[in-house]
Design goal:
Chain B: It holds the Pfam family SNF5. The complex is a heterodimer. Chain A is mainly α. Chain A has 20 helices and three strands. Chain B has one domain. Chain B has eight helices and seven strands. Chain B has a three-stranded antiparallel beta sheet with strand order 5-6-7, covered by helices on one side. Chain B has a two-stranded antiparallel sheet with strand order 1-4. The chains are: A mainly alpha, B alpha+beta.
Chain lengths: 498, 259
């Protein structure tokens, strides 16, 4: 058994292309996915992964799912975008595209409905196909051999067929090759015929979507409007999961550079008159023009500093242009077609801004440039002659120095002025303060004087009062006793003292 | 320690569904057009959108190279069975704690399989698919078409029992309206078939089967050559009469699939 296995394997190896990489084992091998050569064109997909099917055995001891090989010299090819597949595990691609087995209550609640069931379906389908690789495996035949509900089997079958793990290159396979080209979910770097990528195809009915399609995040499915309305999607999803996505006009037919340039010229010339713009552009409707114009990526650069941007790329083209708009724009066409995006932008900017401003900016740029050049060239020639270098350097240096000195002087003077002003201000403030203080002092003195006078007055009043009393008492003393007078008099001197 | 009487029924009313983990419907299609006959049996998920039925029918017809006038009849048949299933769906069914015997008696291509086993109806997590896969693995059945056929047959029997329990429920409700005693045994076959657990697991019984009954519960698989058809069928008939104790809803013995 072993020898036959090895001989058959060697046969296949020599017959196949050099990239075949098979490991001969007599037992049913696990096919190891080989990394595909990255730059291989998809139409000539060589055997990316080859596998020797299990050697034919006469016993029927194998499980129902695994089928014996018929012809061991077949090479089973798998397209490169499905190179991730392995019998041992479930890949992310599968999880994403068939979430019903991996997510949701059905899968979570039961290990059987979930990944285990998926693996069983997948493995048995693939083994079944590989038993008869040249023949196309039909769904009916397959599902009859699988225990489970036909809906799930059909989905797994479709998935495997689309990814080329089943029925790849099988005979009635005209449709399969067409399916290859269509990649809604581009996994690997290789996209077979990437030119059709922008087209949006509906997962449900496999037709090109029209203006808008409905995208579902959960399951990465895009449906055309009709399928969405008819609920033509898997039972795990509900209408709420879908988002409406508009297809841009660009996707329908790309704008060539020429058309874009025409558009820009027209806009510049006609402003907002979209009718004329569309005429100028030619084969585009008004709304197409508007849409395209809005989507042009130039918007921010309108605000940018033109001088810096149009550094020295612009020299050649705009300086010697007298300024007729049309001729300038005509001359821009070769630029715009250049692959250099910077040139295209510059051309556009100059066209937009107008000839005068553009030429002025260019002149300024050139002069700045020339200065820089001079300095640079001076530095360069220093290698040849040091004197020249020295003189030019000193010249340059002295000029610089003078400038610097002047600047410094000016600054110093400014400082002085400022200081003097501050000084005088502070003097004034001091004087004012003094004045106020003097005034305060005077006021205080006056107050004190007033106090004194008041006191004197009160003293005088008291004296007067006592005098009056004395007089009255004298008048009354003659009839009254001497002790009473004394009693009256005593408190008075006390009062006087206080 | 009180022995719990296992024979007591603890009915619980649930909304109608297949008493299995996955609510899948067994569908049997038998269409005849212009002398060509197409018979098939498969499991369908009733939650799939109806558009799938059409595409499935078309695809099957294309795969089997059937003429296009098969498709409308197939469609009708499938949709009819689904509609019937759905008509039960709103109603309640009563799941008593019953263990029912199920029977398999099939011939698929060249394989004949006969089996009888007990199934717990009240276990809503039961999985006929897993059971069948294990069965096929254990019995080394090589023909992959046997598995699905057995699964469909099990499901059909379970479906039958479930739908009967719906009618039991309905009768019960009607009887309640009539103010009669709530508990009464109906004449439905399913109840008669229920194994009296108490008899088995009561104080005297044991879980282990008696040796003399083993032969009844062994699965029998025969791979026959096609010439022995007539003889086989006669043998089947006689064996069936021996082993079957009560009338169990049988599936068609000639569940042949068009190869």
């Amino acid at each position: 058994m072993a020898t036959t296995a090895t001989t058959t394997v060697t046969v296949t190896v020599t017959a196949a292309a050099a990239t075949a990489n098979s490991v001969p084992t007599p037992t049913p091998p696990h096919p190891r996915p080989v990394a595909p050569p990255a730059l291989r064109a998809p139409s000539t997909l060589g055997p990316v992964k080859s596998e020797t099917p299990p050697t034919p055995s006469s016993s029927t001891a194998t499980a129902a799912a695994a089928a014996g090989a018929e012809d061991p010299s077949y090479i089973i090819t798998v397209p490169s975008y499905s190179a991730w597949f392995s019998f041992d595990s479930i890949h992310d691609t599968e999880r994403r595209l068939l979430p019903e087995f991996f997510e949701g209550e059905a899968a979570a609640a039961s290990g059987c409905r979930g990944p285990h069931a998926y693996k069983y379906y997948r493995d048995s389908l693939i083994r079944r196909f590989r038993a008869r690789p040249g023949r196309r495996l039909t769904l009916t035949e397959a599902r009859r051999g699988l225990v489970g509900d036909v809906g799930s089997v059909r989905r797994v079958f479709d998935f495997l067929e689309e990814w080329g793990l089943i029925n790849y290159g099988a005979l009635p396979s005209g449709s399969k090759q067409a399916k290859e080209k269509r990649e809604e979910v581009a996994q690997q770097s290789l996209l077979p015929s990437g030119a059709t990528v922008p087209r949006k195809l509906c997962t449900g009915c496999r037709t090109v979507c029209g203006l808008a399609y409905y995208a579902c995040d959960k399951a990465d499915i895009s449906l055309c409007t009709r399928c969405y309305v008819n609920n033509n999607y898997r039972p795990g999803l509900s209408p709420a999961n879908f988002k409406r996505v508009e297809i841009t006009e660009d996707a329908k037919s790309d704008w060539t550079d020429k058309e874009t340039l025409h558009l820009l010229e027209a806009v510049l010339h006609y402003g907002e008159d979209w009718k004329k713009v569309s005429e100028h552009v030619g084969s585009r409707l008004e709304k197409d023009c508007i849409a395209r114009f809005i989507r042009l990526p130039f918007g921010e650069q309108f605000m940018g500093p033109k001088e810096d941007r149009m550094g020295f790329e612009n020299n050649d083209d705009n300086t010697d242009e007298p300024g007729a708009d049309v001729s300038k724009r005509l001359r821009l066409t070769p630029l715009a077609d250049a692959s250099n995006p910077i040139m295209a932008q510059v051309a556009f900017l100059s066209a937009i801004v107008g000839s005068d401003v553009a030429s002025a900016a260019a002149q300024a740029a050139i002069s700045a440039q020339s200065r820089v050049d001079l300095n640079d060239s001076e530095i360069e020639t220093s290698i040849n002659s040091t004197k020249e270098e020295g003189s030019s350097h000193t010249n340059g240096l002295s000029v610089n120095d003078l400038l610097k000195e002047a600047a410094a002087n000016a600054r110093a003077q400014l400082e002085k002025e400022r200081n003097s002003i501050e000084q005088s201000l502070s003097n004034i403030v001091d004087v004012q303060m003094k004045e106020i203080q003097d005034k305060i002092c005077r006021f205080e003195q006056k107050e004190m004087l007033m106090e004194k006078e008041r006191q004197q007055l009160s003293c005088l009043r008291d004296l007067l009062f006592t005098d009056q009393l004395a007089v009255m008492q004298h008048q009354q003393r003659t009839p009254a006793a001497v002790t009473e007078c004394k009693g009256d008099e005593k408190p008075k001197p006390v009062a006087n003292m206080s | 320690m009180k022995t719990v009487s296992l024979g007591a029924s603890r009915p619980s009313a649930v909304n109608f569904r297949m008493p299995t983990r996955d609510n899948l419907v067994p569908i049997r299609v038998d269409v005849e057009v212009d002398g060509q006959r197409y018979r098939d049996a498969f499991t369908w998920n009733p939650r799939d959108p109806d558009s799938e039925i059409i595409s499935f029918a078309k695809r099957t017809a294309k795969d089997l190279k059937l003429p296009a006038n098969f498709v409308p009849q197939m469609l009708q048949s499938i949709q009819g069975q689904l509609a019937e299933f759905r008509s039960y769906e709103g109603q309640e069914m009563q799941i008593k704690e019953k263990i029912v015997p199920l029977k398999i008696d099939l011939r698929v291509n060249n394989t004949v399989i006969r089996d009888q086993f007990l199934w717990d109806i009240s276990n809503l997590d039961s999985d006929p698919e897993e059971f069948v896969r294990t069965l096929c693995d254990d019995l080394n059945i090589t023909d992959p078409e046997v598995g699905p056929a057995i699964a469909v047959s099990i499901r059909e029997q379970l479906y039958e029992i479930a739908s009967q329990s719906v009618s039991v429920m309905r009768e019960k409700q009607m009887s309640k309206k009539g103010r009669r005693a709530p508990e009464f045994s109906s004449n439905s076959k399913a109840v008669n078939n229920a194994v009296d657990l108490f008899k088995y697991f009561g104080s005297k019984g044991s879980v282990i089967r008696k040796r003399k009954e083993w032969y009844l519960y062994e699965p029998v698989v025969d791979v026959v050559a096609s010439e022995e058809d007539g003889k086989e069928e006669a043998e089947e008939e006689s064996r069936r009469r021996e082993s079957c104790k009560s009338s169990v809803p049988l599936i068609d013995s000639d569940a042949e699939l068009q190869s």
